[in-house]
Amino acid sequence: MLIPVTIEIRVMLWVEKYRPKTLKEVVAPRDIIEKVVMWAKKWEEGIPQKPLLFAGPPGVGKTSLALALANTFGWEVVELNASDQRNWQVIRRIVGEAVFTETLSDEGEFLSSKEGRLKLIILDEVDNIHKKEDFGGEGALIRLLKRKPKQPLILTANDPYALSLELRSLCEMITFRRLTTQQIVKVLERICSAEGIKADRRALEAIAKNAGGDLRAAINDLQAIAEGKKEIRLEDVVVSKRTQETDVFKVMQKIFKSFSPTVYGEAMLLDESPEDLIVWIDENLPLEYEGEDLLKAYLVLSRADMFLGRVRRRQFYRLWRYASYLMTVGVQQAKSKPKGGWTKYQRPNVWQLLVQFKDRREKFRKIVEKIAKNTHMSKRKALTEMFGYVLTLLRKADLRIASSVAAFYDFTEEELAILVGEKRAREIKEFIRKHGLRRVEEKEEALEEEIEKEIEERLEKVEEKPKEKAEKKKKRKKRKKKEATGVKTLEEFFG
Questions:
Q1: What does the alpha-carbon distance between residue 254 and residue 261 come to, in Å, rounded to a whole number?
Q2: What is the CA radius of gyration of the chain?
Q3: Choosing a second label site near 151 at 20 to 30 A (CA), which of 26, 114, 454, 495?
Q4: CA–CA separation, 441 and 374 (whole Å)
Q5: Sheet bearing 119-124, strands edge to edge
Q6: How far apart are CA 27 and CA 297, in angstroms?
Q7: CA angle, corner 457, sides to 455 and 460, nearest 5?
Q8: Where are the domains of the chain?
Q9: What is the tens place of the pLDDT at every residue in 281-315?
Q10: In which region does residue 213 sit, left (phi positive, over 0), alpha (psi from -120 to 50) or beta (all else)?
Q11: How high is the pLDDT of residue 51?
Q12: Per-residue three-class SS string for the chain
């Protein structure tokens, strides 16, 4: 009998808790703030402006400045992360509708752009937007911008030169630089003061230097180090060069084999989205946990999955941070003690299965199309009414009938293998080759060719007969004419 276990995890990430609420709290050069404020005031006056493109490395406050701007001016916010859902349909549905329509506030109040009631659309990480024709994300965005949006729009990019020149020319670019160590230290000191943590300035300087100008990374590191502490000393800071990527296997080892809360910061460095990381953890969790520990860990992991679901539905990507914290620190703290020994972690089987399922779905679609085409009905009707009968005949009928059905629908051996298995598929195809089975239409075509050939031959004969008759008639007329005149040839005279 399972005992119900309740786990209450109250997570408030400091990067969100201490995110600037107004422009006064934003850490950015004065000229940038003045330029952004002037741009916003023009919108307030009813003068549409070009979209802003915030360009700069991660963690320098691009999104924070955009959110603080909206909060300062009392604008609604629509936020979309372009690096995840970046196809034409999403951009047209979410961004397109947002910039060309009026809006309702969270309280249901109608906000008219004519009365100056604006909403700010933030499109993050546009440098990761798809450029391929089959996705058309960047092209879709360019078409939207050329239509002169009625609402303020801010784009952010780590590498603006990954964007096309045409897209950049439609925006006013503002370049952000990495923050200095002293700027980051001031923010960390303010956070420590608010949290009631006594911090050695040298420790904060070490965190700031290690962050490399990335304020978000520095705050994440500070929270990980300060977990459960009231004082931070220099020796508490493990200084290591931050890298762009961390091995996912090392992160899982830290989740399952330790209680170090710094795992969250390391997970943020992974070249894996939270959507991918949760699959890795889910795959390997049963290898490390068992019993009540496994139950608790899966409860926490399910909470993380709920946050990811909200991200997918609402396109609110800041919730990724909460999901990441739950699936790393939450799962880590759910165990009573680490499992001893070395564990070989596995790559998620679900990805391989998805690829296989996609391939099978494509082949299955072609099978249904063949049934629909050769029975002269819609694909939907072929699937619901004919597919079951065809499958039954292929699987259970004797080999002669099954082979005739396969030949009629022109199924390949690979398609038959999906329907009846490889062994049966080989038997059917062998029977078809041995007996020369073909579609009825193919036989009819061959018969039609023979009939056409015979008709052509007969027509040729028919055409020859009038010519022969004309020649005979001509000869008879000539002979009669000679007889009438009495003129004879020498041969006839001496003959």
A1: 9
A2: 39
A3: 26
A4: 10
A5: 76-81, 119-124, 153-157, 52-55, 172-175
A6: 38
A7: 110
A8: 28-175, 181-333, 349-435, 440-479
A9: 988 899 999 899 999 999 999 999 998 888 877 76
A10: left
A11: 92
A12: CCCCCCCCCCCCCHHHHCCCCCHHHCCCCHHHHHHHHHHHHHHHCCCCCCCEEEECCCCCCHHHHHHHHHHHHCCEEEEEECCCCCCHHHHHHHHHHHHHCCEECCCCCEECHHHCCCEEEEEECHHHCCCCCCCCHHHHHHHHHHCCCCCCEEEEECCHHHCCHHHHHCCEEEECCCCCHHHHHHHHHHHHHHHCCEECHHHHHHHHHHHCCCHHHHHHHHHHHHCCCCEECHHHCCCCCCCCCCCHHHHHHHHHHCCCCCHHHHHCCCCCCHHHHHHHHHHHHHHHCCHHHHHHHHHHHHHHHHHHHHHHHHCCCCHHHHHHHHHHHHHHHCCCCCCCCCCCCCCCHHHHHHHHHHHHHHHHHHHHHHHHHHHCCCHHHHHHHHHHHHHHHHHHCCHHHHHHHHHHHCCCHHHHHHHHCHHHHHHHHHHHHHHCCCCHHHHHHHHHHHHHHHHHHHHHHHHHHHHHHHHHHHHHHHHHHHHHHCCCCHHHHHC
Residue whose token pair is 């990507």 = 317
CB 363 within 8 A of CB 415: yes
Residue with tokens 């307030």: 44
Structure tokens at 378: 């819609």
CA–CA separation, 133 and 82 (whole Å): 16
Q: How confident is residue 242, by pLDDT bands cut at 50, 70 and 90?
A: very low
Query: In angstroms, what CA-CA distances link 184 with 27, 188, 191, 208, 212?
Result: 9, 6, 11, 6, 10
Contacts of 369 (CB under 8 A, 6+ apart): 379
Question: How many residues does the structure list for the chain?
Answer: 495
**CB burial of residue 279 (10 Å; 0-12, 13-18, 19+):** middle
User: Tell me: the pLDDT tens digits for 383-424?
Assistant: 877 888 888 888 888 888 888 888 888 888 888 888 888 888
Contacts of 41 (CB under 8 A, 6+ apart): none
Written as six digits, the tokens of 282 are 């889910």
The owner of tokens 């494509």 is 362
**Locus of tokens 């050769």:** 374
Tell me which residue of 257, 373, 266, 285 sits closest to 325, measured CA to CA.
266
Cα 116 to its chain centre, rounded Å, is: 36
